[in-house]
UniProtKB/TrEMBL annotation:
The lineage of its organism: Bacteria, Bacillati, Bacillota, Bacilli, Bacillales. Gene3D superfamilies: GntR ligand-binding domain-like, Winged helix-like DNA-binding domain superfamily/Winged helix DNA-binding domain. It comes from the Bacteria. Keywords: DNA-binding, Transcription, Transcription regulation. Signal peptide: none annotated. Residues 6-73 form the HTH gntR-type domain. This is DNA-binding transcriptional regulator, GntR family. GO terms for molecular function: DNA binding; DNA-binding transcription factor activity. It holds the Pfam family GntR. The keyword Transcription regulation applies. InterPro entries: GntR_C, TF_FadR/GntR_C, Tscrpt_reg_HTH_GntR, WH-like_DNA-bd_sf, WH_DNA-bd_sf. The keyword Transcription applies.
Length: 215
């Protein structure tokens, strides 16, 4: 049910994006604008605007008159993670240097909540959200808005890849342990080591994703 208070294109944007992330729309699947418009009793205009934004974010591919869900591939994984390594290794170096003790405590609290969530067997979406929060806090505490924007531009594809990255037994635990290693250097104000640990962590993500995509 659409809400009148929120622009329709915004609602369709979030709706389609969620369906992609939840697997209701599969990679390579065609999205039928006419069917969506008919189901929700609206014109195609807000749907097309939502599609335009999602295409810009990389989640949809528009080919001639067809709208298709993006299919993750090895080339894109390597390119996106190359950018992440460059940006986030610098971010963690900067945060290690300038973050306040209370900000560093917030990062540690996130790791503690992640560990507790894993012990409690909580939903994978909660674990994924806490994983994202770890990286987001490191970026936030750089207090560098332009750096954050560079990473934000990759966010949709990063989230899509992150869902795939959690595939596999004990994968969430492995990622948490890598985050703990990064954090240990942050807490000790070891900026070079924190940067190296972030690069290593993201490289391990790439290697895991390549295996997932090759299977």
């Amino acid at each position: 049910m659409l809400e009148k208070q929120v622009p329709y294109y915004v609602q369709f944007y979030h709706m389609i994006k969620k369906m992609i992330f939840d697997g209701e729309y599969q990679p390579g699947e065609r999205i039928n604008e006419t069917q969506l418009a008919r189901e929700h009793q609206v014109s195609k205009s807000p749907i097309r605007e939502a599609i335009r934004i999602l295409e810009k974010e990389g989640l949809l591919i528009v080919e001639k008159s067809k709208v298709i869900v993006y299919e993750p591939n090895i080339k894109d994984v390597k390119e996106v993670y190359f950018c992440r390594q460059a940006l986030e290794s610098f971010a963690v170096r900067l945060t290690t240097q300038i973050a306040s003790n209370s900000e560093i405590q917030q990062i540690e609290d996130t790791l503690d909540r992640t560990e507790q969530a894993l012990k409690n067997g909580e939903d994978s979406k909660i674990i994924l959200s806490l994983n994202e929060q770890f990286h987001s806090l490191i970026l936030k505490f750089t207090k560098n808005s332009r750096l954050q924007k560079q990473v934000d531009d990759l966010n949709s594809l990063v989230h899509y890849f992150r869902i795939l990255n959690f595939t596999g037994e004990h994968r969430a635990e492995d990622i948490l342990n890598q985050h703990k290693q990064i954090f240990a250097h942050i807490k000790n104000r070891e900026d070079e080591q924190a940067s190296s640990a972030m690069i290593k962590h993201l490289d391990q993500d790439v290697q895991h994703l390549l295996k997932v995509l090759e299977d």
